[in-house]
Structures
1.
Amino acid sequence: MGRGIGVTTLACAHRRCPGLGTRNVAAGGQADDGSRTRDLQLGKLSLYQLSYVRARAESSGAPGPIYGSARLMRRVLTPVPIAVICALLALVALLAYGLAQNEPDRGAEEALGRGEPEAAPALELPKLGGGGNGSLADYRGQVVVLNFWASWCVPCRTESPLLERWHRRMADRGGTVLGIDMLDVTEDAQDFIREYHLTYPMLKDRDGDGIETFVIDRAGRITAVRRGPVDEKWMQAEVAPLLEES
């Protein structure tokens, strides 16, 4: 009879059957079939079943719908992924800022487009290899081909010999090439100069917008701009006519 009551209690444990205490518990609070019935009354069966389901899910490697979702959320929101995301966002912002800062000044080209050549800036930089500073003012009244270059620049290996030929052609006609070595190691730049036998004056700039060339007339105005290496055709079109002017 005791086992029959136990089965009934098992069936009612999850349904909160009314009158369970009256039918299954004797006076004084003692269970009819001992501690087993009392455990069922206290809901321990549900705890046992819950523990069994959780243990089975963990042993099989397949998280249950509730506990698996919670574990996934904790994994997604751990400090390491958040730190990685923040670092990536910071890197993107830094790259965007660097691109904006390195964008060359197009003011000279815009002025030329309007037919209003602007004055060359008052450029003053250290001489490459030491010996004080040099500036554009030192060549006032001359036609100046202002060339930004670097020893690591591959196109400069073709451009520099061309500029050297033009420098020798301009020297007795009131003109010069002025080189600006930028973003470079001084020793590497000097090796480059020796390799290509360059004789035109050189200044040193630790910054720079890129490989580019400006032509400055005798009045100190920028009359032509070339982003990238120059060639013979461009020099003939932009420099030769200025040398004819007195």
Note: Residues 1-35, 44-48, 63-67, 96-101 have pLDDT under 50 and may be disordered.
2.
Amino acid sequence: MVFEDGFFHADPHPGNIIMIGPEDAPVIGLIDLGLVGRLSEDLRDGAIRLLIAAATGDAAALADALLALGKPRGGVDVRAFRAEVAVVSEKYLGRPLKEIETSALLRVKRLAAKCAELVRTRDTGTLQYELYFNSDNTECLVFERYRDSQALLDHHKNLGDTMAAILQTCSGSSEICGTPSAELMEKLKDSPVQVYTPFLAA
């Protein structure tokens, strides 16, 4: 459908796909055509070249196909671009999908959801635990509030290796507002966490 007719259904979830026709000759039927699109013959040819290059592991042809399909906004260092594509191709092409790690964003969101689940099921002194992403999903703010210093220590213990897994995927920084206990201050002694103690409240 895509490569022969240049037409595609842009929302092909199971609810929009039905089986029609006799059992011995079933036909796939698509419904809800409110979100569809078309590919020009040039785009179809470019997509085919892209798929062939990926299937054959030809990194140079893959880079050329990507350049042909794209619309660069400025000058492109073709040699550097081909080198980058070659690095990515060597890492991913030919590998089963199950062996390819999801994007950093999806991994961070999955681990963040795991943290929230651990808060719900294990923490007893966590009063607030909220996550906020900026508009382009490049930064995340985690707002946490604890009953006392011991509750914060218990929280980090309950997270186990989850926080370490997040920090292997992205960078981060932390600040504490309050009056930490001596035990918590000792734990923070060699860490980059900044502590802000109370001054005024209204």
Note: The radius of gyration is 25 Å.
3.
Amino acid sequence: MTAGLRRIGLTACAVTCALGALGAGVATAATTADRWVPVAQHLVTPGFYAAAAPLPGGRVLLAGGDDDNTQETTSAEVYDSATGDFTPTGSLNVARRNAVAAPLPDGEVLVAGGFAAGHSLTSAELYDPETGAFTLLAATLPSSLNGVTAALLGNDTVLIPTFGAMTIYHPVTRTFTGAAYRLRVTLAGAKRPTVIASTLRIA
């Protein structure tokens, strides 16, 4: 089995890239030399296209994806950057791959959309790192999505680009709103994207 990879200073993006490339392996973030080093442990459930998001304490949630038989899964596990270990956690309610995963201010993770059974999804779930459980939201995305990224905005809502629309997730009400959009953002020198032009008002 292919050995995993490790980069010091974990990022979810690096984990996602490694899942697609290695299946059973993993990658974390960069050293000062920006080099990759092996991780002794492997994923508990080998697969591809999992959603990844950082958790408190230097951990990363990996949720869903395809298994070795290219079937969408409900499996999820947590990678601990301090120990290099992968630990199984609760399962998704809906099997999905290429979902978007967004960490929320309270430590929970929004896992939304994705692809399964030949079509894109509109369902979404919340992961609670304290209980290890996923809760299926009653609200659904106004438009299906897969293979996109999300951004936490300054008002603690989450911006998710869906097909032909901009979707905003509101953690307080656990609801989604959306509208047609044209959006420009600037990332330079900022931890969060700054919206500088939009046809949708974000209150």
Note: Confidence is low (pLDDT under 50) at residues 1-25, 27-31, 194-203.
4.
Amino acid sequence: MNWLEMPSHDPEAEKNTLSCLLNGATPETLTQEHFYLEKHQTIFAALFDLSGQMQPTQFELIKELRRRKTLDSDLNKLITEIAGAYVPEHNLPYWRGRLEEHRKLRVMRRAVLEAESLEPPEVMDRLERGLMEAATQDDAQRIFTGLEVAQKAKERIELRASHPQRLAGIDTGFPVLTKRIHGLNEGELVMIAGPSGTGKSALAQNLLVNIGVHRNIPIAYLNTEMSERAVTDRLLSILTITDNDTIRSGFYSKEQRSVLDGAVE
């Protein structure tokens, strides 16, 4: 199925996520954008506000929605259904993951549809903004209080003290770079910027080889400027330490051919 034709939301995941929140899970890693259906957004907004004051219950949720004048018979019935499902709070990461997949799908679909009506120079900019929006971490969409920030910092210090290590993130394969950024860490976006022709793509492809090939860590590589052939040739050059011009020319020695075949395998 074409990804543009995939369902925009997952009703089961939305309901079960709300059930987790009613059963003690905290909504701090969720935003209203994770929910597609308006009725689910309405319930989540009330649960989110209540969670800052108390552990929400079905009674308190209905009371809050009545206060907001958004409660009707259908919503009341839905809340009863969600509460009756009784999805344990520890299941939240799974259901949140399913919501996140559909959120990203909606963001990218919106970007593609909007790009269709733009002039060529604006298309790539809109698609790139769509990718950035889809990749945005939930923490970046929240406003944290000073107390929350201090608590998170305390937890990280305790974790680091109990598991000391010189390198917190993934080794890039470039000692100076790894030391400067403390490795590649989950939840961080590292941008490689510079004028044209300064080696940004070459650096990214070396990172791909160092991390994806040598360390066997899954990587998604997107390149909107180079062809598949050009990217593959450069990766082969990095893997085999063979001049890129030699690879493109086809004039290989037996040893070079053997090394290239081995790299592809």
Note: The chain has a mean pLDDT of 84.
